[in-house]
Amino acid sequence: MEYMKEPVAPSQGNILCCQCGIPILPNPANMCVACLRKQVDITEGIPKQVTVHFCKQCERYLQPPATWVQCALESRELLTLCLKKIKASLSKVRLIEAGFVWTEPHSRRLKIKLTVQKEVMNGAILQQVFVVEYVVQPQMCDDCHRVEAKDFWKAVVQVRQKTLHKKTFYYLEQLILKHKLHQNTLRIKEIHDGLDFYYGSKQHAQKMVDFLQCTVPSRSKSSQRLISHDIHSNAYNYKSTFSVEIVPICKDNVVCLSPKLAQSLGNMHQICVCIRVTSTIHLLDPNTLQIADIDGNTYWRHPFNSLFHPKQLEEFIVIDITRVQAGKLGAGAGMKSKKHTLAEAWVQKTSEMNTDHQYFCRTHLGHLLNPGDLVLGFDLANCNLNDEFANKMNPQNVPDVVLIKKSYDRTKRQRRRNWKLKALERDREGMDTDDERQYQDFLEDLEEDEAIRKNVNIYKDSKIPVESDTDDEDAPRISLTDMLEDLHISQDATGGEGSDMMTE
């Protein structure tokens, strides 16, 4: 569509075109539009086909000379990037309007309809509409090159936890996925007692360290090694290493606090149960239901260890249980847990059912246990405690048994589980039997603890769970309202969703 825009006084009459002789309104060129178009092409010099580079790995476009930007299909940002490609050619005309023309998403073509004006012969203004086609050329960006190389890195974050159980690592993995902290990693490598995160820049590594210190109780230190030095430009090339050590305490651990630390926490008993590890260590006194939170700095000033590892959990059967009223705490004591109920119980090991040997204990699981239930716990009466603080305690203050959690049939719980979690893509040799058991422990913790579950993205599983009449009716389950749909959005080669398309 081409026409001339020139205000004409109504009183003026028509004139004849100097080229073809047809009657026209007077204009400075004294030509009709058709003849003027034959004489002058205002789009001359503007390329009608341009190439743009697109990285299929990270779905970004190249903005010369070396910047890669994220642009959705048909977006304002993509339109700006395309117009910059022909900015020099458009300097001779006046751009009136620009918009996308619909193209097949997989055609690797972008079309933009442009409306331009230019003053031609004797001051006449000619307006013209034309289409510029952009060919989307795939090209891998520098960051993705480094990811594919897997050996090019400038900073590494080494996360370690000196424990036999990986519950804290599984929880940390879900937090990283939820907050998308893994997107800038070049490579994630799993080793025996932790994970290594490799980055292309020190800033991304520092961001991960800051995130870890905010989400789990930990301490960190850093170092750097000189790789090369250019004496002419005075440029240094370093490789940085950040070491992050997470406190060696996991959920369901029994710990023994130092007398000084127990006193500072409101005169708690030294023997406590770790009920949760988030940004702090959440401890509970099973004798009084008193709770306390210990952050990373407090732990490193007054360190303590777990008395048992998870493999030492033993199964007990509840013979009798009586719920009791928790007494008033002394002056300076902390808060009491409102989610637990104090009870006195007689229990017996399932491995000693042919004997009359029973154990008496106080427990915080009075709201869950009934006579005949199975419960997991630690036997302190028949073990050798190799702990600095526990060995100095009065034996009368050490309980015979510490109950940890109610026992359910794991096979039935797995069979009816209708949800799943996502996992980080990392280099590892494979999960052994012990890793699988620990992962199932973590999934059961999510079902039982709402406080941990709200920090984790849980997705619906496409498989149909198998229900049985013999399933434990009281076993904890995750409701559908806590689950997210596992969406797989596949974007085409020209980016993601954008604004409405413009048709001719």
From TrEMBL:
Q: Which UniProt keywords apply?
A: Cytoplasm, Nucleus, Protein transport, Transport
Q: Does the keyword NAD apply?
A: no
Listed Pfam families: NMD3 (PF04981), NMD_SH3 (PF21193), OB_NMD3 (PF21192)
Please list the residue ranges annotated as the Nmd3 N-terminal domain: 17-246
What do the Gene Ontology cellular component annotations say? Answer: cytoplasm; nucleolus; nucleoplasm
Q: Which InterPro entries match?
A: Nmd3, Nmd3_N, NMD_SH3, OB_NMD3
The record's subcellular locations are: Cytoplasm; Nucleus
Q: Which residues form a coiled coil?
A: none
GO molecular-function term, one example from the UniProt record: ribosomal large subunit binding
Q: Which biological processes are named by the entry's GO terms?
A: positive regulation of protein localization to nucleolus; positive regulation of RNA biosynthetic process; protein transport; ribosomal large subunit export from nucleus
Q: What is its main location?
A: cytoplasm
Instruction: Reply yes or no: does the keyword DNA-binding apply.
Output: no
60S ribosomal export protein NMD3 OB-fold domain location: 313-406
Q: Which residues form the 60S ribosomal export protein NMD3 SH3 domain?
A: 249-295
Query: Which function does this protein serve?
Result: Acts as an adapter for the XPO1/CRM1-mediated export of the 60S ribosomal subunit.
The family line of this record is: Belongs to the NMD3 family.
Q: What is this protein called?
A: 60S ribosomal export protein NMD3
What lineage does UniProt assign to this protein's organism?
Eukaryota, Metazoa, Chordata, Craniata, Vertebrata
Name of the coding gene: NMD3
